[in-house]
Amino acid sequence: MPITAVSKDLDALTMTVVADFPATRQRLWEAYTDPRQIEKFWGPVEWPATFIRHDVYPGGRSHYYMTGPDGARSAGFWEFLSVTPGEAFEVLDGFAAIDGTPNLDMPTMRMTFAFDETAAGSRMTCTTYFASVNELEQLLAQGMEEGLTSAMSQIDTVLADLASFAAGSGTHLQLLNDTQVRVSRIIRGTVEQVWRAHTDADLIRRWQLGPDGWSMPICEVAAAVGSTYHYGWTNDDDPSQAFGFTGQLLEEDPPHRSVTTEAMVGMDGPSTLNELTLTPAVEGTLMSLVITYPDAGTRDTILATGMVDGMEASYRRLESVLG
Questions:
Q1: Can the peptide bond before residue 255 be classed as cis, meaning omega within 30 degrees of 0?
Q2: What is the distance between the alpha carbons of residues 135 and 122, in angstroms, rounded to a whole number?
Q3: Which residues contact residue 263 at a Cβ distance below 8 angstroms, ignoring those fewer than 6 apart?
Q4: Lowest pLDDT segment from 82-91, 97-106, 115-124, 161-170
Q5: What is the reported pTM?
């Protein structure tokens, strides 16, 4: 059990949890900053978490929900106030609707997470700051301490799994729910390099090609939020085989996050929503792309085209471009 101390200070309106781990500080940090990893231990054993969004940079947000044994869901959000990479972060932590909208009828707490090296590995110190004694007592009565203890009991297994989240393990697809998937990969390169590779037309043409044998004659990048982009590909051996995508840039926070719509050129039907997040990792950059489809049928049809294999071919090419 990693938790070594829990203390409550009614005068300071705080609860502090200390947990020790036989893992490096960097490994522990990445368990908290990688959505694929934190969702494996953030919720209690009976209420596993699903992170739809996890943007670990100042001003970034996280949105997650926990699913109970009967299918009921309880959602929450984080708003990142500060981030010191590898060492600490501070968030506003609160309850939310399933779509991530904060529930202002429930308490919102400030939480600090500090990560330190120890002789045996690393230590995480989490301090929660409450607005009043009533809020502190209300949340403790709802099982906050027991839920945190249950959640932390799962983290050792995550920390011991080095292969699943390492560079070189390829592009991973995760079904989050009926309409959303997460595509993720560690890309060897800095966040700034990977961001530029997604926003510079000359670079995009060099790597975002899918399987070998295709070229990208159309590469019109969205210049600003609200503008549109247009990408088009052609088979080098048979120019009659061509396709393209277009959409609008809805949100951008360089070099960490962008949100776009995407629709196939010449096809009727609703577009997808693509949320790209880039997070520094010890071996490069964690690329996380959450795609929201209009329905499960559309999701399954698009995934069956071999989309993920094509993306992996492109990301391998990107690593070569980045050197």
A1: yes
A2: 31
A3: 245, 246, 247, 269, 270, 271, 272
A4: 161-170
A5: 0.91
